[in-house]
Structures are given as C-alpha cells and as structure tokens.
# Entry
Amino acid sequence: MSRWAKEIEMQCKIPAIGVASSNIVHYATGYVSKYQTGMPIRYVSVPFPFTGQPRAVDVGYVTGKDMLTGQPLMTGVINALTSPLTAEEKISGAPPEEAVEPRFLSPGSEENLRQLFDDKEWTDFNSIILPTEKRVTAMLKGTSHKPDEVIKTINITGGARQLTVEKVAINAVMAGASPEHFPVILALATQAPFGNSTSSMANMVVISGPIRNRLKFNCGTNAMGPYNRSNAVVGRAFTLMSKTAGDLRNNVNAWETLGNTMQYNNMCYGENEEALPDGWDPLHVEMGFKPTDNVVTVGTGWSSIASVGASQSIYPTHFLMRDYMSSFCASGSAATIVMDPTVAGLLKDTHGFKTKAQLSEWFSQNVTKTAASYWGNGVIQSTAVPFALQGLEPYASWRKLPDDALIKPFTNSKAIHVVVAGGKVQTMWFVTDFGIRRGVLIDDWA
Amino acid sequence: MERRKMLALLGVSPALVADSPAYARTAPKAVPKDSSPDGDSRITVMNPAISGKLATRVPLVPPLDSLQDKTIYMINLSWEGPDAANYFYGAMTEWLNKHYSGVKTIVKVTAEGMFGSDPAILKEIIANKADAAIVGVAG
# Structure
C-alpha cells in the first residue's frame, strides 16, 4: 500500500493517503517507511477484519472511528489530506546510517547469550548451539566459498540485507549442523527467507541426488518425522537464516495470524529415489538436472492433507487424492503430492500411470471445485480477481459462472509435483498445496 | 507391564507423570565453550544479525487546502478481493458528496491487485489533473 501511495505522490505529485486496519498501518508507518519507501505516508485505520465482512459492516466503517486517533474516520481522512506537513514529513535525502551490526557480540555468559538470542528473536526458541568463532570457522571449512561472499540481498520486507556465506555459517552452527551439511544449507540460503504472509504459510525442503545417502538424509520410514539429524538441522537452518537474514520479528514484520508449525523444520526430507517405480523420475531430474546432481528444492504453501490410512481397492487412490485436492485453493495451479513408494507402485502398476507427469496431467484434468468455492478463497481473490478484471482467461469466464458451476482449477499440470518418500510401511500419502520452485544445485556450493 | 505401555493403554500421557522419578530427565550435557582470553566464564559469539539499509527519505507532497471542488481517486488494491473496498469507497463517496460540494471521486481497481504496478491508472490521474488519492483498503 505504501509503495502504491508513494508512486502516486512521486509520479502524480498529489497527496496520497492509505486506509488499512491498525496492524497493517503499524507495519506500514514503521518498518516499511523505515526500510522500504522512506516516505512517511499518512494513514487512517479501519477496524479489523475489513475483508470478508457483510457490505453493511464495511459501509459502517466510513461513519465509524479512525482506529489510530479515535476521531471520526472521515475527519481523519480530511486531516490526512489537508493538514500542513510536519518537519518529519518534509525530510529528504540519505538517512543517517543505521547502527552497523558488529561481527561479534559482546562477551557474556552462556545463559545471558542464550537469552539475548531469544530476545532478539534470532532463534526458533528451541535451544541453539552458540556460534563461537571456532565453530563458525569449522563450519566454513565445508565450502570453498569465501566467508564474505554475498549470496543474495534480502529485501522482501525492506532493509536490503546482504546474506553472506559467513552469516549462513553462523545460522548453520546455531541449527546444530556439521560442515558436511554446509553446501546444502548454502544452496538453501539462495531461497531465503521462507514464505511469510498473514495467511500463515509453510515451506517444504526436498533433498535430491546422491548427497541424500552420503549425508544420511532420511528418505524412508519417518522421512518427515523427527527421527533424523540431517533432515532436522537442514530444515531448521532454513528457519533460522530466514528469521535472522529476513529480520523477521513477530508483530514487527512477521504477521502470520496463526503461524504454521511446519515452519520449525520446513518439512525437510529426501526423496526415496531408489524406490521410485521404473519410469518415474526423481524430482530434480524432472526439472532437468542430472540424476547424479545434488539438488535442494523449496516449496511454499499452506496445507497438507493425509490419506489417513492405507489405500483401499474399493476406491482408487488417485480418486481420493483428487477429492482432497479439490479443497485446495489452487493458487498458481500448485500442488505437491508426497507418497510412499508403495503408493507410487500401485499408481503405476494397477492404475497405469507410467510417469509422474501422467499423474499430474490426470489431476489437472480431473480435480474440480465449484466456482463459489474457488472465488471464496482470499488468496485467489487477491491474485486471480485482478486477472479476471483484465479479461484474462480462464479467470474472466470463471468469474461469470454461477456459484455451483464446476471448474478445473489446476490448469497447469506442470505445477503439480509428485515426490516419493517413506518406508513402505503403509500405502499412505499426503496431498499438499505447495508450489515448488526450481531446485538449486548443491554442488555449486561445495 | 512396562510403565509407559501401561499408561498408554489407560489413555494417560506419560508427560502427565513426568515429575515421577521414573521419568526424570537426565541432566543435559554441558555445552563445550571456547575459552575466553581472560579465563572467565564469559564467551564471545558471532552475530547472526545483518545490518539493514535505511531507505532514502522522500518528503510528502504538500497537502490540499481543502477538499472543496477537488477530484479524488480512490484506488482499490483488491486486498483479499475488490468487493470490500468497493463498498467502503462507495460509502465514502456518499459521505463526501453530502459534506463537500463539488467533490468528484473516481474509483479504480488496480490491474494486478496489491502487487505490481498499474501505469495506466497513474497516467489517468495525471491526465485528469486529480488533486488527491486514497489507497486501500487493507485488513
């Protein structure tokens, strides 16, 4: 919002104010103004929630109070558009430098340092390994890259923070990783920070290639459970580096209303490539990597639904997957299905899906939901309605459909991914709404 | 019968009897520390935080003298959909028309919602010599 208001002020040379609920105004006038826009946009504030309310509620807010000042909201609007500028609002030019973060923290007792790390929200509030120079130096031996190499500049919430190899090493130590994990964590750092939105996102980290076996990532029984060190520390490192490099702090610039427990470990697991049926390629090979490449892939989404028990002959497995997928919003046509090798075998041998791509295509053609259910989702409203208003298909046509009309929301089968993991203990699976990004070559970070 | 199994059969979480000696946790091993130069128990650790770059300050455009006879654009960012802001801007327009003669409002829904940019709207604002804009509504 502030970015929009700033564009109008700068390009159109007219005053522009924002209207938002108080949590967003707090973020906009604080963090966003400081690190992103540099412009102290004026706001008035409506009660929360604003969207999804009956018309009468939103209309009533106009004659209600400005939640920032307590005065009538329209008085706030008029004041925001007509009050003389304050000295603060007239400031221009380069800001004073923010205090530079020192490379080392002041010495302290272990207890006090642990408290400091928690107070700064640099941890996930589980115990960390304190990053002494000795430990960080040892971690850096896990890569040929120089400590001061900038991996990326993180600006998603402003601040243009430069994430260096050394900073990632600090987080890797904190997470409990060993130097041999470091190339994986560096590759993962190219994808930091993790998904962070009021909609309470989660993330998935999939490890592919021979490195799974060399570092003993768990791809079998309990692949997604708390039973393996490599899965645990790599998944956790993604959280810690996302928080520290992204400067993510609760109620400051992290506004996930419920949050998501999957953010503790980011569903880090390896694909059970050895157990794939013939013709089913590993995830990274589907993306164009060689089977011998080592790759880490990040997905972002919200939800995971389990089969809750074994597959049954009375109702084909892919039918049940299809039914459960119909509850997803299908944003970006994205889904990721994680299945035990036995399910993959069943789908291939009994139901004839010779490749993962065939199965993805079947979902694209057969998952349906009503138009009302599709448009009834907030993320879809934010992302697909603008497409519909521009006349882009199929969204424009879908928006004209009656509520009970069925649509096929997964329009792009290539955005539906299949990953095989698990220990052949039960014919079970998860369907998730995770959108998978292109994988990152771990070998580039060795 | 093994105590944990017995509790599970009774539907009781072992956590409920965690104070019992049978479930007492063993003391955690001390974390090895790097020795400090002065030999005290304090340690020095590296800082995971990264300095943020502050945005260059940009002043606000001078405000209006009044809303009388002004043209105000109401920009709908489709936050979780366009409906709520449309309701809100409609009521705001009614209020302004009632209290300020000659105020003209124009509601525009952005092409890419809250994301991206919409140069067409900016051009239109300039072409129509609009006087102010309201952006929203988020929440």
